[in-house]
Amino acid sequence: MNKAVTSKPKYKTRQAYLDAALALIHSEGPARLSMRKVATHMGVSPMAVYKHFANKDELMAATLDAFIARSDVYPADELPWDEWVQCLARGMYRALAGEVNWISALGGIRYGEQALRVTDSFKTKLINAGFTPRDTLQAYMAMTQLVVGAASIRASVALDGETRVGLMGSYIQQLVNSESAADRDMAEELMMSAQTPLVDIGMPMLIEAMRLRLG
Q1: In the chain, what is the greatest distance between 2 CA atoms, to the nearest angstrom?
Q2: Rounded to two decimals, what is the model's pTM?
Q3: Domain residue ranges in the chain
Q4: How many CB atoms lie within 10 A of CB 161?
Q5: Could you read off the pLDDT of 163-210 as tens digits, one per residue?
Q6: Where are the alpha helices (H) located in 2-132, listed in sequence order?
Q7: What is the C-alpha to C-alpha distance for residues 43 and 39, in angstroms, rounded to an integer?
């Protein structure tokens, strides 16, 4: 009588666990991620996950790194600093707008290699362009807040351009009918902004302020 052959489960790579964590964050959000849920998703015991990550904090940091690497937010090195910053901001915005569950977790995750690379690349680009360390830090915080704010607004209302105009329809009409030329110009700007990604509405003013600071 032939004995049944029982094959051992295939070894799960570290990347496989990160892929599982990314999938769970996409579907359920980072607050509900746990070592046990990753294990269940992978069909293994929780101890198998602990072989790769010491705890949930380490798993979250590594998963954020995987998310950043997958998003490919880095601009070309040869770009001038102002174009480079705008490209970085747009890349970060696209990444967050496509994975909105990350937004709520960004402030509470320890930075890993990829997250630190974003910060260090920004620092290096601006310092080499002539910005002071203080101006560089302020510019980085302003850009990050602009990107996260724009992505948060888009996530909270899921607005396309037409819907954004629709929600402000009565106000725009009020401006159109105003006797003030400035009000009518504002109505036109609001209509034009409907065709602009939210992050690009505020970026020109930030870049102009940075140019003035640089002198």
Answers
A1: 96
A2: 0.78
A3: 9-71, 73-214
A4: 15
A5: 555 556 677 788 888 889 998 888 787 777 666 788 998 999 999 999
A6: 14-28, 35-42, 46-50, 56-71, 81-98, 113-129
A7: 6
